[in-house]
Amino acid sequence: MTSFYELDPDAYSIYKVPDGEDTTTKTALMAGYGAFTGTVFALYDVIGYTKPSTPLGALRRLNHWVVPLASVGAAYAATTSIVARVRNKDDQFNHFWGGFISGSIFGLKYKSLPVGFNMGLAIGLTTMLLKRAYMENWRLRASSEGRKSFGHFHHYDRGYGITRPNPEGDPNI
Length: 173
Description:
With 173 residues, the chain is an all-alpha fold. It is built from four helices and no strands.
């Protein structure tokens, strides 16, 4: 049975390395993921929503999305590692605190305490569940094990006419 996290065994994952170790690589990786996501959001914003008239306006919209999301990724990885070093444990609660602190960055961005608290809670609970799923090897997608031989694209195996195909290959049956 292959778990969701073993799709590409060569890829670097923040879950494969214990919490509190390799902090700089995790922080750079998560900041890069955040910057990439912010760039995609900024492109959608510039092309489809705000449509700035100058290149400077487009750069301002890029800054509006990239900097907070890269900060969210970096804060998540750094906080998770710091909490793990303080607690001396590698469990899902480290990821909850990392998600909570990174979600609070949205509260700073929008200058709202309820937004920061709720986003922190949502991201913290989500990352806590993802770490728990990795630790216990939960199946997050369907596997091909246990499929029955009848189903889609196997209609030729079932003959309901007068003559049925012989499994041994005898054409005279």
